[in-house]
Amino acid sequence: MTRSTVHAFRTTTDDDGDEHADTVSALSSPHDDLNQRIIRLLRDDGRAAYDLIAQKLGVSGGTVRNRIARMREAGMLRIVAVVDPVAVDYETDAMLGIKTAAGVAPADVAQRLDSHACVVYIMWVSGRFDLLVEVVCDEETEFALFLNEHIHGQPDIAHVEVMTRIDMFKNQFLLKRHVP
Fold first, then answer.
1. 17 — phi, psi (to 5°)?
2. pLDDT digits over 88-138, tens only?
3. What's the Cα-to-Cα distance from 39 to each of 28, 57, 59, 103, 134, rounded to whole Å?
4. CATH at 13
5. 36-94 pLDDT, tens per residue?
6. Which residues contact 163 (CB under 8 A, 6 or more apart)?
7. pLDDT of residue 173
């Protein structure tokens, strides 16, 4: 069996404003097998020591450090903190299915909603909705205010379906997933 090499590209802009496609090393590609295994371990603990990750994968700490650095430099990996809404007991966690108004691009609505701190997730989707937007609020009144001011009656939104969380069965970002 032959193995193909994965090349990733990123676009850069020079001083004259011209765009160029730069080849990114396969060692920084998220499609590389070792990088995928590093990413899986970082999903469990984004603060794990490189030497611990290396030990689990049977490689050197320097290899892990270099791979992570290359993925970050290529803009293909970011290590961030994710707040578990169940652990911090937010009052309201809802998913909004949004159908944009005729002639309005989903990206425009996404950009408008992106600046709100209670909006934690925006995805352009196919199907009956154009966007899925997750909203997490400390209080129900904050959620109602967000809906009234930024969703209902807005000219760029044709229809919204509000789906509030009743229970959580799986969330890959849960911080306490290994606790019995």
1. 85, 5
2. 555 678 899 999 999 999 999 999 999 998 898 899 999 999 999 999 888
3. 12, 12, 14, 39, 24
4. 1.10.10.10
5. 899 888 887 888 999 999 999 999 999 999 999 998 888 888 887 666 655 555 567 88
6. 94, 95, 96, 97
7. 56
Residue with tokens 């989707």: 125
Q: Which domain, by its residues, includes 129?
A: 92-164
CB proximity list for 70: less than 8 A, separation 6 or greater: 25, 27, 28
> Can you read off the two tokens belonging to residue 137?
């609020």
Q: pTM value?
A: 0.55
Strand locations in 101-156 (E): 119-124, 131-137
Q: Which two three-digit tokens encode residue 93?
A: 């966690």
Which amino acid, one-letter code, is at 91?
A: E
CB 12 within 8 A of CB 22: yes
| 3-class secondary structure, 15 | coil
Structural domain tally of the chain? Answer: 2
Per-residue pLDDT tens digits for 128-177: 999 999 998 888 899 999 999 999 999 999 999 999 888 777 766 544 33
In a domain, 2, yes or no: no
Q: Which two tokens stand for residue 72?
A: 């970050």
As a whole number of angstroms, the distance between CA 151 and CA 164 comes to 15
